[in-house]
Amino acid sequence: MNVGTTSTSKQPTTKRGQRTRQALLEAAESVFGEMTFEQASIAEITRRAKVALGTFYVYFPHKQAIFVELVDDLSARLKKTLAAAVKGETTRLGRERAGFRAFFEFAAKHRNLYRVVRQAEFVDEPAYHRYYRTLGNAYAKGLSAAMAKGEIGRFEPEILAFALMGIADMIGMRFVLWESPTAIEPIVDEVLELVQHGLLSKARMTSPKETK
Amino acid sequence: MNVGTTSTSKQPTTKRGQRTRQALLEAAESVFGEMTFEQASIAEITRRAKVALGTFYVYFPHKQAIFVELVDDLSARLKKTLAAAVKGETTRLGRERAGFRAFFEFAAKHRNLYRVVRQAEFVDEPAYHRYYRTLGNAYAKGLSAAMAKGEIGRFEPEILAFALMGIADMIGMRFVLWESPTAIEPIVDEVLELVQHGLLSKARMTSPKETK
Amino acid sequence: MNVGTTSTSKQPTTKRGQRTRQALLEAAESVFGEMTFEQASIAEITRRAKVALGTFYVYFPHKQAIFVELVDDLSARLKKTLAAAVKGETTRLGRERAGFRAFFEFAAKHRNLYRVVRQAEFVDEPAYHRYYRTLGNAYAKGLSAAMAKGEIGRFEPEILAFALMGIADMIGMRFVLWESPTAIEPIVDEVLELVQHGLLSKARMTSPKETK
Amino acid sequence: MNVGTTSTSKQPTTKRGQRTRQALLEAAESVFGEMTFEQASIAEITRRAKVALGTFYVYFPHKQAIFVELVDDLSARLKKTLAAAVKGETTRLGRERAGFRAFFEFAAKHRNLYRVVRQAEFVDEPAYHRYYRTLGNAYAKGLSAAMAKGEIGRFEPEILAFALMGIADMIGMRFVLWESPTAIEPIVDEVLELVQHGLLSKARMTSPKETK
DNA sequence: CATGAATGAGATTTCATTCAT
DNA sequence: AATGAATGAAATCTCATTCAT
Questions:
Q1: Among C105, C125, D169, D184, which residue's beta carbon has the most beta carbons within 10 A?
Q2: What is the pLDDT averaged over residues D26-38?
Q3: Cα distance between residue B144 and residue B150, in whole Å
Q4: Taking CB atoms and an 8 Å cutoff, what residues of chain C touch D130?
């Protein structure tokens, strides 16, 4: 399912063209990672790709097009990464833990790219929605299956999926992007406990009394 | 505690000045609500405020300044709204429910303004951080108090606060902003159940079996 | 002979007015000394004078007016300074030496103001011409008298006066304004020798042969 | 020795680019000759060069850049002109006379451009210093050689060079630029006599006695 | 006299996009 | 395919000057 392929961008036929297009995409990734969509200029992209300004328009009809392609690309990459991380796990909670961990690691690794997605909200809303819908649907499907098996409680799957994505997003932003990510695991622990047992977690109710 | 007052914006001495400045702020709120920061032009703001273009620069050094003031303002308003909503509630969970509900209502009511905050990430990062830190700190403080009283489990307060804000933010975006907000309460129900008991909520484990 | 009084600037009647006007002039002197005429703003002048913006226009019809007044003022001050320096001297050459020395000292002391005069060429040409004509005429008159007495050779007085002013101006700029004025006297010596005996100065022809 | 080339101005690759850049420089020369740097607008320059407004910024980063290039250009042209004028002359005094004459003629011919240099003091001081230093150094070198040969007296070469440039500048301004240049030679005569023999010139001392 | 808010013309500068080569 | 020169619309920002109080 190749969701986001914007059909307006031209696919080159020759190998040379392939290479140039790829160079542009990589340059764009680096540029958009460092600056705002508005701050980024085609000139800067072509400069880093070491091609002439006009060459850009051979492959992309406008600035937005390459940006959107990047967003869709990232969405696909993240989805694949999460799927791979979750695959080995057998229990639902193992999957959750693996998923959150993989997400935080992905965010830490692609720090800049993550801002690109968020910016899509203001550059190309459809791409932005597509990003969350794509991930949300896949997530919801997995959660539904778990509900059917009785591994987790029954919730409205989409609400549940978005709530969990919300946690991942915000925690990732606050404790991975804003801060130097010293150790990810303790954060995963806290989040997982909340996700599993909620605020009223019995395990957390008793322990503090003893600790203090 | 007037956190975000950009000291570069000038406060007028006379009443006439006060009125003009206020008119500019209101016009800006309406403009930024409808367009991207980049799309919005000072000219449009002054047009709506019914003052000359140059007048803008009597009170604000540049577009960013008024934008930031708006963000800080919103932060303060939201904080106040949440505080008021929560005040009447006696139990922790009552407070949570009231807080989420109030947030979703606020988002629905100020639909456009909410985009303004999110954009701050790309227009003025400090203002953006300030927004979440301010709310997060207040939230974390309330949660800490609840932990001390044994009303909820022991978590790292800041992580907990950001996780819950993450849920509110994402659910608000997905089910309040992207969609026509038919009924908020059912969504609040789902969210609250998750927040209280987690994925393994016993109440939700049994019921589905009966339902099916 | 009150050459430069621009009649368009208003002379205040009350003492308070006198003080304000004076404060504006002094502020303007300091501002124009630090910046270009274009860079200088009325706002900056009134800020330094500690009066409101509008007050400026009570005393001066526009920016140029205060600038021109400053130029004419400087011209008068310099003329007076030179006259005083020359007064005690009895021989023509003593006068020349005293005049050059006084000029360099004046330039060093009013370093910034000197730029104000030069700028007049581009801000208000009449004021600029007035400056050089006033000084040039006075100088030419003195030189004519010396010629009549046979103290110096017969030259076209105005050409002579401007040539000598040219030396003073350029040497002052290069060796007093561009550089830290370590010692003025050696420069005066060189200049005076040239002015008295020209390039073919006998005193300077012989000595080098011995030196080398 | 291409002293003043501001490296920020872009040199075009193609012939078409060369032509456009040149057209801009010529238009700028004509505009700056007629108006103050501040009065001159990029729009006026591009209008005269018959290119679009934006084209200016393809070759120059801002107004100052083209202005400075003009100043450096003029400096080079003047230097070349003076060198050529002086070349044929064998005696030092012949050279001086030829140099002064050539300078006055240059000033008369490029009347407007001369104002451009003077303005540099307020637009880009380094360019202004460069102008005088370049000419001054070349002049000083020639004078030093003459001193070594015993053709003229021993002076501090740089002081001497600037003093003579000062005469040229001021006389040029007063009697060539301010006035319609009826005849240049009589002025050159007066100046040369002063330069050669100084105020105490014997040739000029005797004649007046007979006149009176 | 003094104030300071309001004006609006005007200029620079940016850059996505087009196009001729 | 690739190039890079040319375009021109659009927006920000400045500030001298006016004017009502």
A1: D169
A2: 94
A3: 10
A4: none
